[in-house]
Amino acid sequence: MPTAPQTTDELFQALSENDRRPYGRTRTVTAEELVDAAEQFGEPEPLAYALLELQEAYTYGAEPRKSPVVFARLLNLFDEQPDVFDERLRHMLFWRFKWVANALRALPEVPLESLRQWLTEMRDRYVKADLDLQPYYGQAYQLAAHVGEDTALAYELWAGRTRSRLSDCEACEICERALCHLASGDDERALRTWEPVLAGKESCQEEPARSVSYALLPLLRTGDADRARELHLTGYRACRRNPSMSGEVGRHLEFCALTGNEARGLELLAENRSLFEEVDSPQDLFDFLTGVEVLLQRVELLGHGELPAAGYAGRTWTVAGLRAEVRDRADDLAARFDARNGTTAHTDRRRARLDRAPLLDALELTLRTRSLDDVAPAAPVAAPAARTAAAVPDSLPELILQARALDEQGHPDAQACWARLRTLVAARDYTHPDDPAVGPLVQLRADLLDNEASRAGHKDEFAVAADLHEEAAGLYDDAGMPAHAALAHACALLATAEIPAAEGAHAAETKAAALTTTHASMARLHEETAGLAPYQEARLLQLRATVLGLRLQTSGSEEHVAPVLAEVELLHAFATRHDIAGQISGALLLRASTHALSGDLPTAVSEIDGLLDRLKVHGPAWHVPRTLGLRGRLQLGLQDAQAAHADLAEGLRLAADWPADAVNTGRFHSDLAEACMHLGRPDEALRHLTRSAELDLRRGSRTDAFCTYSNAAQLSLDLGRIEDCIALLDSLLAEPDVAAKELDDRLIAQLRLTRARALHAGEDLKAATTEFVALAAESAGWDDDAGSHAMIAAETAVLLGESGEFERAREAADQALAAHARAPRYEHLSNCLRELARLQAQQQGSDGLPAALAHLADAGRIADEARAADYEARGRSLDTALAYEHGRVNAYAGEYEDALSALEKDFALLGEPGPEQDHAGEWAECVRLAGAVEGIYLKRPAPALTRLDAAISRLTALGHTEETEPLTSLAARLRDEE
């Protein structure tokens, strides 16, 4: 708190501001400071309100030890000066007797007799104040349920009584009744009891998040896994990182453990790591730790005890180590509660949770489904199942010779041999074979470097690849192998040419020129190198053709097509003459790609058809998947999504026959997603997008992966799968390199922007607004992208307007306008300003009209600018939308004649509707609003009905029957009122 309040008015203002803060340390510390400030005034009423705020902060900040102390001060104040407590203060005082009972129950150091004495005190106070005792019996039942004795009688004494003003809210009482049925083993009755809460009909500060956490397992046991999944996503988001709901977090971790989602459980545990330190309530901590142990126990049982886990601060934990620590602490808490209560209830409940077997082998909870192997530091690549890979020889000389032979063919199984050799050579006791067929150790080291360089190139790490190829070339020279060295030099030239150039106006020209130079260097190297084996010469010819293909791809110039085809013909002729099947196939694939790049897709497809026929007869078989992939992409270009889907699906199926790094299956999934979207199968597309992204992550292509995930999140939002979208983005934004700001900041901003929009769509206005405000502040510094800042600031303004914060909304709109001046975003700004005007007039009526009209004046200037720039809006015309909004804003403000005049202007701009659907709906809405203003507010039903009837007749004649429905309804209402 910057400065202490100097007056009681300032104190109450500060209390109000603190009440809007989220529960946690900041709110609690401020509440403590405000109590100190209130004491300085010497007035009991401000002090009472400050103490109430402090008790609330302790209660929902998971500090139960402090709550009773504060309440004791309140009770003393009430006893000494009861007249200070008006009806509102008195109600809050007696309500919070229950808070103290809950707090004392959560502390095992408080004797059971003291708990009962407090309930007696509560009963006596209620009787003296002539208050109904149902709340007292509710607390008596909760104590009995906590202890585990005499629950049936206590339940009847409470549940059989009529609710009163001081009873717990309906949602909380429903939860207690459901938990009673759950404890008796009746899942179905518990779920029926919970239904109003789970359906969102009853809610409060803690509900439905509390009920959801308990209902997850009963839903699974009764076969409703889909609803359990849905409620897990919404319920977890409501309780995550919240110390006062740590028990709920623990039950969500348990749910993950029992549904085959152990990897997600570890992810959520990491997100809630702070709870280990922040939770001061022993009861909440007991529930949390038991849920954590269920998860860790399951992970360890599956053989992953050495995985890292997020635990207590100050050291690094493995799953096994953290489980042991958590077990000891939770066992101690259970023993303390049972010793206090004189029962074994806590130990029994804990054992029941730990002994539960998984309820489902696998339940897909999120769009980012991962296994424990995926989160391991070095996830093993699954071996292909459909084909038996070539055996890796045990004999070292045979292993070296097989690796080289397979590498000459470009065979995918070579990688397994090189991987084995890499491990053997790195060992301290490695001894190189003394075998002339194998060659010297320096040759093997060069081979391994060259292979490592190729793998780096496949990951788009071109600078690394170039350096490694050059290093390999040097070792080949040392070994007296100039042909090998020349090939390595050529590979280094290609990798260097593929290093992304700095962006600029002439970037493409510069890169094309560099590729021309690279080709000349390769050709010269080819001419100057003697003693090339046929496979090496073919490889050099392939590199030369590839460089020219990249130049064509970069420039798009027609003059660069013929040189590529000429080089391809050289490669094809040479490979055919020497019967090098892989290079023949590669040449044909390059030729087809060249036709595609030149825009001749039909010829490219024809070439691919011929290549596939050849591959079926002559091979190599591992070229078939990528060839099908190319044909699938060409079919997409020809707008034949069905054929594309068939080729891509078959290519993906065949790719499973080969090692995981042999074919870029992530690209297949990405292309299949595009095909599915064209075929109207967005849910299938979503699955392919998330799979593609996860495969990119495994390949180390994190930027590509996050871009694909961003597309998946947007698609899930477009499909209305809001919680899926939020859960996916929460998972991505929790990644370590995101938190460390190691990824592109604009990409992360896009993920956050989509999440903010999803929160808004999910009606979490507070969280959405907070994120938008932060993004608007960050994007203000994007000098190179003012347009994005304009759009973000515009959306921020609208959300602030929805929240009723119109001054801040105006500030955000002004930021958007300033950015728009540098990078115009006509439609976004017009939409923003019109919506702000509507919100202000709707919420403030005539008082908000001047500000609303100012927004519309700005929108008018935007429309003028757009017209002058010949800009065409993708949605509604900016001019007609503005005229309509003038009508609506004036109607909200009670200026009905002005509203009708504005709508008449809109009619003139729109013109009469035609048989097309271009603006029939917009015209009908304008008629509806004009009819309502004229017939209802101006009380002129006759002309309004004339307007409506004419519009209904015209729309019906044009076939726009759906658009007539609101007009018919309004006309019927006006006739009824005549």
Characterization of the model:
This protein is mostly helical and 978 residues long. Mean pLDDT is 94; it is low at 378-386. A hairpin with a 7-residue loop joins strand 1 and strand 2 (317-318). 72% of the residues lie in helices and 0% in strands.
Protein traits:
978 residues; mainly alpha; two-stranded antiparallel ribbon
The shape, in one word, is globular
Helices and strands: which structural class?
Answer: mainly alpha
Which regions have little confidence, pLDDT < 50, spanning 5+ residues? 378-386
The proportion of strand residues reads under 5%
Q: How far apart lie the N and C ends?
A: 61 Å
Mean pLDDT: 94
Report the biggest beta sheet as strand number plus sense, adding barrel if it closes: 2 strands, antiparallel
Q: Could you give the count of β-strands?
A: 2
Using only C-alpha atoms, the radius of gyration works out to 36 Å
Helix content: over 70%
Biggest sheet strand line-up: 1-2
Number of helices: 48
Brief write-up:
Helix content is 72%, strand content 0%. It is an all-alpha fold.
Secondary structure layout plus pairing:
Blueprint: H1 8-19, H2 25-41, H3 44-60, H4 67-80, H5 87-95, H6 97-105, H7 112-128, H8 134-147, H9 151-159, H10 170-183, H11 187-198, H12 209-221, H13 225-239, H14 246-257, H15 262-271, H16 275-278, H17 282-301, E1 308-309, E2 317-318, H18 319-341, H19 345-354, H20 372-375, H21 396-409, H22 414-426, H23 441-458, H24 462-478, H25 482-497, H26 507-528, H27 534-555, H28 561-577, H29 581-597, H30 601-618, H31 624-637, H32 641-655, H33 665-678, H34 682-698, H35 702-718, H36 722-733, H37 736-739, H38 745-761, H39 765-779, H40 786-802, H41 806-822, H42 826-844, H43 849-868, H44 878-892, H45 896-910, H46 920-937, H47 941-957, H48 961-977
Antiparallel strand pairs: 1-2
Helix pairs in contact: 1-2, 1-3, 2-3, 3-4, 6-7, 6-8, 7-8, 8-9, 10-11, 10-12, 11-12, 12-13, 12-14, 13-14, 14-15, 14-17, 15-17, 17-18, 18-19, 21-22, 23-24, 24-25, 25-26, 25-27, 26-27, 27-28, 27-29, 28-29, 29-30, 30-31, 31-32, 31-33, 32-33, 33-34, 34-35, 35-36, 35-38, 36-38, 38-39, 39-40, ...
